[in-house]
Write a structure and sequence with these properties.
Number of helices: 6
Shape: globular
Strand content: 15-25%
Helix content: 10-25%
Radius of gyration: 21 Å
Oligomer: single chain
Order of helices and strands: EEHEEHEEHEEEHEHEH
Length: 263
């Protein structure tokens, strides 16, 4: 571990835009008559938020599925397997890949590169648009989506209530990317690949039934070397203006960003 010395941090910020209702489950500590079957997670003030663990877990899952075949046993072909109880991708030969470096893995001796903050609701945007986008909400910050499960034999309908953050809501997200070596710069490509996969997938629950489509907009990237924390150097903006994931499709974009990181 002594060879790993922190060289600096990349701060990635932006907005998560809810494109279809977002259902990230919270606690059901009380049973209310007529209440939600699946409430969303909220902070102490009753405002919905997206846990950093939900973002991290979904990105990791999508990247692992795109890199490796879904199987429970290692076939000794260098593509590993998915651990049946831990639900993450692993190798029997102690290989450490880019996904493990970004997200971490059991028994690895490398530091985890990414920190995923909880994403909190952009309250000002929500209140500003309450009369236009959110005027028909059943609850203060969420909607009540009623779904029916139909018994195939009796045709009896069994309604259930799904609480969702409504389409049009914004959340502020932040990812901290730690740099320990020059090689770590290339891991940014893998991280952004995961974000692009997520835009074409879903976040939270009930994704196959329409929930959880999101997009990442208004993004910025700052680099802070270790000297920044010693008050000896200013932070560096890696991108001249706010960007979306559509802006990073070319190799030139990454080359320009990486070229500004001086370790």
């Amino acid at each position: 571990m002594e060879k790993y010395q922190l060289k600096g941090k990349i701060i990635i910020k932006g907005k998560i835009v809810v494109k279809t209702g977002l259902a990230i489950g919270g606690s059901t500590t009380s049973l209310d008559i007529g209440g939600m079957d699946s409430p969303v997670i909220k902070d102490g003030k009753g405002v919905p938020y997206i846990p950093g663990s939900s973002i991290k877990g979904k990105l990791r899952s999508l990247l692992e599925q795109s890199y490796y075949p879904l199987r429970a046993k290692d076939q000794k072909d260098g593509k590993g397997y998915f651990h049946p109880s831990q639900s993450i991708h692993m190798f029997d030969n102690n290989t450490i890949d880019s996904i493990m470096r970004i997200f971490g893995a059991p028994d690895t001796k490398e530091p985890v590169r990414c920190i995923f903050r909880d994403a909190y609701l952009d309250y000002d945007h929500f209140e500003k648009n309450r009369e236009e986008l959110f005027k028909s909400l059943e609850l203060t910050f969420t909607e009540d989506k009623i779904e029916n499960v139909i018994d195939r034999i009796s045709a009896r309908a069994m309604p259930r209530h799904l609480e969702r953050v409504p389409m049009g809501a914004y959340f502020d997200f932040e990812i901290i990317f730690d740099l320990f070596s020059e090689e770590d710069k290339e891991l940014l490509k893998t991280l952004f690949q995961g974000l692009r996969l997520l835009e074409d997938d879903y976040l939270g629950g009930s994704g196959s039934r329409g929930s959880g489509k999101v997009s990442f907009v208004g993004m910025s990237m700052l680099y802070r070397s270790i000297d920044y924390y010693k008050n000896e150097q200013k932070e560096t903006s890696l991108v001249d203006k706010e960007f979306n994931l559509k802006d990073i499709e070319s190799e030139d974009w990454f080359a320009n960003v990486i070229g500004k990181i001086n370790i």
